[in-house]
Amino acid sequence: MSGGALDPATRLAARERRAAWLMASPALAVIGLVALFPIGWTLWESFHLHDLRMPWRGRPLIGLANYVEIAATPRFWSTLGHTAFFVAASVTLELAAGLLLAMVLDRMTRARGLLRMAVLLPWAIPTVVVALVWRFLFESPGGLVPGLVWGDDLAQAAFFADPVLAWIPIVLADAWKTTPFVALLLLAGLQTIDRSLYEAAEVDGASAWRQFVDITLPLLRPALLVAALFRGLDAFRVFDLVYVMTGGGPGTATEPIALYTFSTLLQNLQFGLGSALAVVVFALAFVCALVVIRAFGARAFLERSA
Amino acid sequence: MLHPFLRIAGAAALAAAELVFGAACARATDRVLTMSGSQVGREGEVIARQLERFRQAHPGLRVELRATPDAADQRHQLYVQWLNARTSEPDVLQLDVVWTPEFAAAGWIAPLDRYDPPVADLFPATTAANRWRGALFALPWFADVGMLYWRTDLMAAPPADLDALVRIVKDVQQARGVDADGGVPFGFVWQGARYEGLVTVFLEHLGAFGGAILDDGGRVVVDSEAAVRALTFMRDSIYTDGVVPQSALTWQEEQTRFAFQNGQAAFMRNWPYAYALVEDDTTSKVAGRVGVAPVPGQPGGRPTAALGGSTLAINAYSDQPDEAYALIAFLLQPDQMIERAAIAGQFPPRVSLYDTPELAAALRVPTDEARRIIEAAVPRPVSPVYSQLSELLQVSLHRALTRQQEPRAALDDAATAMRALLARVQLEAP
Prior knowledge:
The complex is a heterodimer. Chain A is mostly helical. Helices cover 74% and strands 0% of the residues of chain A. The longest helix of chain A is centred in the first third of the chain and has 38 residues, at 8-45. In chain B, strands 1, 2, 3, 6, 11 and 12 form a six-stranded mixed sheet that branches. The A-B interface holds A 52-57, 75, 139-141, 152-158, 160-163, 247-253, 263, 266-269 and B 73, 77, 80-81, 84, 102, 105-107, 178-180, 185-187, 192-195, 242, 245-247, 249-250, 264, 384-385, 387-388, 391, 395-396, 398-399, 401-402, 404-405, 425, 428-430.
C-alpha cells in the first residue's frame, strides 16, 4: 500500500473516532470546567501565600509552606480526630438502626408503601432545618431535652457548653436524618435474599438469632458495605450540621475538618492556607474511598455474582 | 418604503433613547455620593432623614445608600472583596471600630487628619481605636460600650467590685430562690458563646483585674498574672460560685437580654441597645427597675467598658474624597448625633454633648452614667490582624470556660499563637 492512502475501513474508523470525540467534547468541557479546573486552581492557590486581609503581603509562591503550617497546627490534627470520631459514631449508629428498620419494613405485609414513605421523611428535610430543630431541642434553657434531664433547675449544665455532651445532639441529629437512607439500601438487599434459605433453616431448627447471624448478615454484606461507604464518605464531609448546632464549639471540641477549612478560607479569608486544607481534605477522602473500594468492593461484587 | 408598523416602532425606539440619554444627562449634573452601612430598624429611619437634610444643604450632591448585610462578618467580607477590587464606590464606609486598622494598613481608607476633624471634642478612646501608625483613618459615629445592668429592686447600689457582685448575687439568690418564677436562677448573665462578644466580656474582666491583651507597644500580654486571675474568676463564677449559668457559654446578646428582662437575672452585661428594650413595660418584667453602671473593677484594676460602635471612613479609591468628608462632617454634627441618640438610643462620641439638656432629653440612659461608662471605655487591640487575634483568643477563652483547659494553659496557648501571627505580619510589612 502506498503511504498516505488508507483503506476505506480504517478511514471510516478514524472518522467515527473523531465524531465520537466531537460528540463527547461538550460533556468533557463541562467536566473540565466544573471539576478539573477548580481542583487544579485550588492546588495552584495552595502553593501561594494569599491572604485577602493582608494585601501588603502580596501573593508570593511559597511552595509547600502552607502544608508545613497545617502539619504543625494542633487544631488541624484535633479536627481530624473529631471527624474520625463523628464518622465512626454516626455510621455505626445509622447502620444498626437502619438494619433494624429495614428488617421491620421487610416483615411488614400491609401498608408497606405508605410506611416506607413515612420512614423516608426525615431524609427529605434539608440538613440545616434538621440542625435547627435539634438545636432547639437541646438548647439551654428552654430546650425539651435539658428540661427532661435536669428538670426545672435552670442554672444546670448545658449540652452545647460541654465538650463531650455537645456530641450527643450532633450524632443523634445525623442518625435521625440519614438512617432512612441506610434502611432503604438495606431493605433492597434483604429482598434479594432467597426465602427458601430461611425455610430450610427453619426445618433444621435454627433459632431466629442463628438465622440472622448465618443467613441475613453474610448475604447482606454487599448492601451493608455500600451503605457504609456512602455514609462514611458523606459523614467525612460533615459541615452544615455542626456549623448550625455548635459552630464547632465549645472551644473547638466538635469542629470537623470541613468546618475548619471553611473558617480558614471564607471567614479568615486566608485563601492560600485554606486551599491547602481543601486539598488535604480532598486527598484524604480520595484515599479513604480508594482503600475501602479496594479492600471490600471487589469482594462484595464477587459475592453478589456468586 | 417602510411598513407603517416599523415606522411607529422606530419612532418609539428613538423616543425611548431620548428618554434614557436625557435622564442620564440630568443625572450627570447631580453628583452622586455613595455610602454604605447598617440600616437596621430605626437606624434606617434616622439615616434616611439625615441624608435628605444633607441634600438640601448641598444642592447638586445626591447621596445614595448602598445596602449591605446586617451581620457584621458578612459586611466585612463584602467590603474586603470590594476594596480588593479597588472599586471607587461606596465613597463613605461605615466600619465596625475594630476594622479601622486593618483597612488602614491595607491602604483601603484615606487618612483624615488633613480635614482637621473635631478630635478634641471626641472621647479619647474612640479616636485611639481609629488611629493607625499615628494617623487618624476614621471618625467615631456612635460609641457602643459594655455596661453593667443592675436591678434597683434587688439592691440599693451597684457593686463596688466584682467580689461584691458575687456576694450580692448569692444574697439575692438566698433571699429570692432560684425558681424560674420569682427567683433569680441566672444571677449574672453575659455573652459567653464563642464569638466576638466573648472577647469584649473578657476585656472587661481583664481591665477589672488590671490586665490587657496587648500592651502600649503592641506586645502580647494576655498571658500575664492579671489575665490568668481574670479568666479564673470568670470560670469560677460559673462552676464554683454558681453565679453565672453554664448555659451563658452558648449565649449571645439577645439570650442574655431575655433572661434579664424576664426577671431571672440580677445583673447583665450588655450594650446600650438593650436599655430601651428592658425598660419597655410591654415586653419587660423589670421595666422601671433597671440601673446601669460601669462593669466594676477589682482592687488593683479599674472599671472597664469594652468599646464597640461604628466609625465612618473614606474609601481610598473614591473620586470625590472632599465631598465624602463633607458628608461625614455633617453626620458628626451635634444635631445629627442627638437625633440618633433619641431614635436609635446610640451614645454620641462628642464629650461636650453630655453637658447639654438636649442630649439629656434625647437619651434614655442618664447622661452622667453614660459618660462615666464611656470614660471607662477601652478599645480592643488596635491591630490590622485584629480579627485573627480575636479568633485565637475566642477559642482559648472558650476552652478554659468549658473546662477543657486550665486558664493559664489556655492563655499561654493563645499568647503563643498571637505572637506568632504578629511576628509573621510585622516581618513582611513594608
